[in-house]
Design goal:
It is built from 16 helices and 9 strands. It is an alpha/beta fold. The strands form 2 sheets. It has a 7-stranded mixed β-sheet, with helices on both faces.
């Protein structure tokens, strides 16, 4: 444990009440925090895990995030270093542990560890030590979610400061600012693989680097290919209707990697590109988007730097084969991976996607017509003997199938639930 982190921990132990007061002030300005980027990020990634999975939040402060995770159906352990934080978490109805990530031993195995605004106080050696400890404490295929402040908008790499408008406590703490390369280099010294990365803007207009890592064998994903896709392919998804935008693509990529890990000798670069391109042509022709998307991929000259002609043909066929309504089984394991990953495993997501997909196809329809269309469409797709195919065993999908079939049994209840869900989505968007 570095001296910088030790002094910072002491500052929080002394000033926890002031920090909590600052949290309350910020929360008062954001009453719908469950729609915040953090909460949506956590929900999206926890959906990759079975319900009741064990989650550890490091640095829980008042325990709000842990309480949200518990309500989602996960077995969460909140933790912090100061007595006042522990007392506040207890008031939230949770049973926290007093825990210092750099000093204390993790006695349990977890499926997910969350370190939100924790590594900001860590030196490079501290982060490597923490990641190594977390990796060893994670169950197979477990995930780590964390963020750090980018150095791109800073004139220094480190400083002692008390940000006045973001969780001010009246005492300076140690902050270390990182480049993406520095964090990537630290990760490279562990056995973690990067599942997701993006940038966010914080309260003080800092730029945050946000990572989701997964325990498992190295994927050997080509970083230059990944950078090209992120910069040139992902932005194209802004043209799609909401159900087929970038959030969905990243979900399919994550799920594809999960299934790919069960296949010895799989080429993760091919898996990544198939998932990244599979819906890129959706805004052009929704009914034939798999053909349009494959054609767009095939015309991308940049991909020839990374793949042979045979590999590009494999990618093209896998994109063409990914649709649940396809009249033939995917021709390769890559098509089966992405076809399986593209299936919903959340009833709420299914209700949202079917509504907006219908709206894209039939902009003239009223909401009642869209709800009726969604019901008939989903019954054909997920009902008994439905056409949606699944090529990998997945407990989440099996539970989803049970839940959606139960909902589809009663058309009136289905429409009532979809109407309420879409109304809530529209209300959030108008805020």
């Amino acid at each position: 444990m570095s001296s910088q982190n030790q002094k910072t921990v002491e500052a929080y132990q002394e000033k926890a009440k002031q920090y909590l007061a600052s949290v309350d002030k910020i929360n008062a300005m954001n009453p719908k925090k469950t729609n915040s980027l953090l909460y949506r990020l956590v929900k999206k990634n926890l959906e990759l895990l079975p319900k009741n999975s064990k989650v550890l939040e490091v640095g829980s402060a008042n325990g709000d995030l842990s309480l949200y995770i518990q309500k989602l159906g996960y077995n969460v352990t909140a933790s912090d270093v100061a007595d006042d934080f522990i007392d506040e978490i207890l008031k939230n109805g949770l049973r926290p542990i007093r825990f210092n990530l750099l000093e204390d031993r993790l006695s349990k195995k977890y499926h997910c560890v969350i370190c939100w605004k924790v590594f900001v106080h860590f030196t490079e050696k501290d982060i490597l030590k923490a990641m190594t400890k977390i990796y060893d404490s994670l169950e197979k295929s477990g995930i780590l979610i964390f963020n750090v402040i980018s150095d791109e908008t800073k004139n220094t790499k480190e400083e002692w400061i008390d940000f006045p408008n973001e969780y001010s406590i009246g005492v300076d703490r140690y902050f270390r600012y990182y480049s993406k390369k520095e964090i990537d280099d630290i990760i490279a010294n562990t056995s973690f693989q990067i599942l997701d990365f993006h940038r966010e803007i914080g309260v003080e207009k800092q730029q945050w680097l946000v990572y989701v890592l997964k325990k498992g064998a190295k994927m050997n994903l080509n970083s230059n290919l990944q950078y090209y896709i992120e910069q040139n392919v992902f932005p194209e998804y802004k043209k799609n209707e909401p159900a087929h935008r970038l959030e969905h693509i990243k979900y399919v990529i994550d799920r594809s990697f999960k299934f790919a890990q069960t296949i010895p000798g799989i080429n993760y670069n091919i898996v990544y590109v198939v998932a990244a391109y599979h819906d890129i042509g959706h805004h052009i022709d929704p009914k034939r988007h798999e053909i349009v998307s494959a054609d767009i991929m095939q015309k991308d000259e940049e991909l020839k730097k990374f793949f042979s002609e045979d590999e590009l043909k494999l990618i093209k066929e896998a994109i063409e084969d990914h649709r649940a309504s396809s009249d033939h089984e995917p021709r390769s394991i890559y098509g089966k991976i992405v076809s399986t990953a593209d299936r919903n495993n959340s009833v709420e997501s299914c209700l949202e996607r079917s509504y907006y997909y219908g709206k894209k196809l039939h902009p003239e329809y009223s909401d009642n017509e869209l709800f009726n269309r969604a019901y008939e469409h989903l019954k054909l797709k997920f009902g008994e003997n439905g056409y949606a195919k699944f090529f990998f065993k997945d407990e989440q999908y099996e539970k989803f199938l049970t839940d959606i079939r139960k909902l589809l049994f009663d058309k009136k209840k289905f429409i009532e639930r979809q109407r309420k869900h879409i109304k809530n989505i529209k209300a959030r968007k108008s805020d």
